[in-house]
Design a protein that fits this description.
Multidrug-efflux Transporter Regulator, Chain: A, Domain 2; 3-stranded antiparallel β-sheet; single chain; about 55% helix; about 5% strand; 3 strands; mainly alpha
């Protein structure tokens, strides 16, 4: 029987101690919507490695760059949107590359390109102003 993968999770006290902040600061970040830790069955906050990485960004912005929490929220939202756009661009490039590869492989076989050369089956009928040669 395969074991279900579990993500490492850290309790609020461990995260607060590791980063030298008060647990109330982490609760504030959660109230402001900057962090969204999961909860255990006993309703204990559990911070994943993704939450901790996000906390590191928040702390860098606030401590090192002096950004207030409203600015942090805007920056985090913009980073998320930029990540989404980057993923869309990568998917678009992959689609273009697949299409280009398919067309290049297709064009490499001249027999597959027969439709590119117009085939004249009959002369167009002579009409007013047209002369037959």
């Amino acid at each position: 029987m395969a074991k279900a993968k579990t993500k490492a999770a850290f309790m609020i006290s461990a995260v607060a101690e590791q980063y030298g902040i008060h647990p109330q600061t982490l609760r504030l970040y959660e109230r402001e919507g900057l962090l969204k830790p999961s909860r255990s069955e006993g309703n204990t906050r559990l911070y994943t490695s993704g939450d901790v990485e996000r906390l590191e960004v928040i702390l860098h912005l606030t401590r090192d760059l002096g950004v207030n929490l409203a600015g942090v929220e805007i920056i985090l939202n913009m980073r998320e949107k930029m990540g989404d756009m980057q993923a869309q661009i990568q998917e678009f490039i992959a689609t273009l590359n697949r299409e280009l590869a398919a067309r290049t492989a297709w064009a490499a076989d001249p027999e597959d390109c027969h439709w590119l050369v117009p085939v004249v089956t009959a002369r167009p009928p002579a009409g007013p102003g047209r002369r037959r040669s």
